[in-house]
């Protein structure tokens, strides 16, 4: 009855070693094996998918499993044990086939709002279909054995037996025939029942679709009412004979409303609405007229009172969106930028059978799959992590903010900007070797210097530290958890990102969202970001909730949409964030808020009246010929550019990555295998040292990072790697004696 079956079997290896004892685990339609039970924690020797496998039995103890080009010859200790395994394998195969046929793709392509409805509808149908499949299988077995019984009785009837025996055999044969007829009737009844259930399912789906359309029309009506409400408020404030502080719609005459229609029509075209966040109060924003709010600012709601005149100050940080003037004001003490490369060799056009490599990787951790460089881009994961600094000037602007909520807007825009480089970047970065480092020293040009180090290999973890002389420090330790699901690849960054501003002491913490690469097997690869980011200022307790809306074919929203609200420690909303993670982010100051009607999901919508949005961040255009250069940005093109005086463990010196960038992919594959084998040898030696220390009763520390050390973070309470110093001093002295030989 359990979904998992484990035990020892003998597996044929080769003619020299014959059958070897292996530990087999059957789970979720996959049969995996290990040399020992202890290996289950870290090393899988092989996996076969039962949904497309053929199960055969050669003799009393042997089992043969074949799936395409892979075949397992297995042997059990006894016939009873063999039969147990065969039964478990057959049941697991039938279940895997049903799951493959019935399970819908959960990659986020469906409309999010209808997930609960669909699960409520399809849940019982899936269970019903599963039970009917089981019943049909049992009936087929009954029919099969009944036919065999009839054949045996017919053979007995043809033999010369006493008369009374012949009569008994004839009676039994008639009963077997009756049993077979009854079984066939039951099968037909089951099929009729299944057809009836499917017809009702289609009827329920039509009714559900009708309800969805009704809900959409209702939401559109609510939005139109919000627009009309805003127009009426403007008409009330501008109507003659009314006090400037009066906002009562009941005292507005019909004529004044009609006279204001012409004025309201222009604003209606600029009105913006934002969908509700799942775990936060739903809200709608309406763009307000700054003139009216400047004239009657004392009448704003006390719940979200704002000062629109502050929004239009010419010396506001929000007005410094002109990058050239901003760099002039912030970069007077910086040296002119060094001339760096603007292109790399074009990507070769190599063909590759993707399925032949991927079919044996389903369900495995991505970092444990041996991949050719054909799937890579010529950058390491450490360099991709450094790419988060592409829009570092957002943090430089945030330093100048006097208000913590205003500063939060820039931090939120920075957190979104790090995803803009991923929209076309579907290739996999190189997995860094243990001890590999990457530095980006732009202290004299851009005011910051960055250092990354691979501090763990399984699970892969990288530590990152950035210091800016413009007044901020950023650090993080990111562990990448990734799973290949067959149709798509999920990449889940684990770990918190810390940002601290030197002058104010504001300490911001947030975490990354999940990235999903779709169409791994068939179709054009594309990437999506989904989930929520909560940015918390642990000094002022300000918060920003950002929602990354997953792509939906049926949604009318713009693709890659991001929305959010910035609120203070008391929960009062100050700004609305909106935009897309691949293009731009805007910020709108809230001047008035009111509670609207309750939505169909039972959530109450909040209507935010805002001033015109300000663009905080806009993506830089890609360089010319970017499609042939892995869609690298201007910064990415310079990340692997050779530099002098870097550490011998720097990613720029990695030979397989350098060969791939030069277009010599065959040589890069050979070099990549050499480096990975070298790393495995070091790991085996380290494991042997750990075992030896354990036998001698000594403590074994394991791998110790070079430039980082593990400490308990006072803010999150997590154990993370933080920079301990010494790297830049070692670079000045060119003393790299502590660096291991990893290349």
Automatic annotation (TrEMBL):
Domain PH: 2-94
Residue stretches of biased makeup (Polar residues): 245-259, 318-328
UniProt region (Disordered), positions on chain: 99-123, 238-271, 288-342
SUPFAM superfamilies (alphabetical): Oxysterol-binding protein-like, PH domain-like
Keywords attached to this entry: Coiled coil, Lipid transport, Lipid-binding, Membrane, Phosphoprotein, Transport
Molecular function GO terms recorded: cholesterol binding
Coiled coil (UniProt feature): 208-235
Sequence similarity: Belongs to the OSBP family.
Locations listed in the record: Membrane
Membrane topology of this protein: Peripheral membrane protein
GO cellular component: cytosol; perinuclear endoplasmic reticulum; plasma membrane
Protein name: Oxysterol-binding protein
PANTHER family: OXYSTEROL-BINDING PROTEIN 2 (PTHR10972:SF194), OXYSTEROL-BINDING PROTEIN-RELATED (PTHR10972)
GO terms under biological process: lipid transport
